[in-house]
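Job type: complex structure
Entries:
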Amino acid sequence: MTRPDPAPVPQALAPEAAVARAVTAGAGGVIYDIGYRGYDGPRLGRRSAVWALFAFSFRAAFGLGRSGRAKVVPWGALAIISLPAVVQSAVIATAGPLGARAGGGFTYDNYLFRMNLLALVFLAAQAPELLVGDQRQRVLSLYFAHALERVDYALAKLAAMVASLFVVAIVPMLVLFLGQTFAASDPFGSFRDQLGSLPGIVGSAAVYVLIYAAVGMSITAFTPRRAYATAAIVAVFLVGSAVSPLLRRAGAGIGDWTILLNVNTVAEGVRHTLFGGEPNGAVATASLDGVAYVGMALAVVAVGVMAYLWRYQRIQP
Amino acid sequence: MPLIEARSLTHRYPGNILALDNLTLDVEPGVIGLVGANGAGKSTFLKILLGLLEPTSGEASVLGFDVRREGTQIRSLVGYLPEHDCLPPDLSATELVAHMGRMSGLPASAARERAADVLRHVGLYEERYRPIGGYSTGMMQRVKLAQALVHDPKLLLLDEPTNGLDPAGRDEMLALIRRIGLEFGIATLVASHLLGEIERVCTYLLAIDAGRLLRAAPLASFTERTGTLAIEVEEGAAGLAERLIGRGLPARIEGRTVLVDVSDEAAYITIRDAIADLGLALVRLEPRRHRLEDLFRDEVTDDAA
């Protein structure tokens, strides 16, 4: 009869057992004084540290591993931004394809433009969540004393903001996509028909997300308090969208160029230029060339990211 | 290869504030005390060693790595406990320490395992799962120490590790540092403005003042020089001092206390006999706790000599 192999000793326990000093205590009981163990395993260095910080921050952006309170805003924003897509999909499912208009008339072209307020809520709440605490509680001095550089920290946090915001932007459009696919009498045919719009879906989400993240993270990097950062981000978006139509009506000289003060119009202009479809908002009525939106967007992202990185090169932890 | 090597290290902050002035020293492994008054340049020195601050001039290396060019390598092998608060209140100690392990390049599973290990070593048990925001100062200092230890560093840099602790907390922290240095075998540099504390844990002492190296020597040589005995008697201090001086011992009076600089064993017998002969009521007989000022006073007299 063959005996089964003894269970392999877990790697972690082997060195412990080797060093353990058994100290007999009282009535035959044994206390193991394990002592200090060194670490001879792999040290993966800077690249691994950056990746770990990205993953950690991405989870933090959704409040994962944090208290319930930390989850309210990110998950609430994600739920509400997805709600129209869910409702419209339900209406289509019961009333057929013609139900799309009754369900709100959301399309891949207008979804983010209409629902951008929720993306703004997510950005204005979670960009400070990612950056301000580390500044205020001086956790930065711990980070900078480790295997990663200042620029690594900044880029990992920026990437986490981009990735989490991308989830918020893409999820509702994927809901819409699935809704329209499965509500059709011929799901396979519908899926094939819609496949062509996937690059546009991903692309337009990316356009909004990159512009939003660059604006939000650069503002936050310069703000020492969470509430100030949130207020400043909201102000930049809302003041831009409030002022630009007023200026447009009043300013005969500069005319349509004033719409570029509105971050959402810029994002929408780039989306329309790159991926076509129905133009929304001021983009529909203005006579600006697509290059103007793209140029403005590139300028905003470049200036935002450069200011952000500059700040983290100089910040005193 | 020395653990730390500095050659003519000088640092000026903006506004022409001189923090380190031509500092040259070699540090060998052990538990090393870096002692100096507030503003003497201790924190600046530690930050330069970590590669966080670029020296204005001069050279320095840690574990053979140049502080200017190889900061990343240094930081992956060195643990650092900052002087100020630096802990996020919303994370638990376990989460923070494991995360900092990953920031040093440890794989996720190893970081978790080592976090549990080092938290146990610094004496945090069930409370390590609670958010740090609710911790006492003593517990926070332990977490700061744990995050500096999690990646099994070759060198620990501790900046005022007993800051804000009550006497019992100080004792525990000092015992822990001693254990890390001697039992765990991790070279440790402890910066403090309290010589009395540092001399309890260190084997070697560096004293700096106004950015200059005052003295670097094994601890024993410091205590030899400042081997002062404090004798407190009910009354008759003056008579005792007189008699001791008559027996060739340098004695001076400070209130009800007679201070004697003791150089050998025989002095204790002389003192005992003197007290007995005079029939004095002895209240206290103890070695004087050394203070920074004593170091500096000695230095001045040395210079004058």
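Summary: DSSP finds 14 helices and two strands in chain A. The CA atoms of residues 16 and 37 of chain A lie 7 Å apart.
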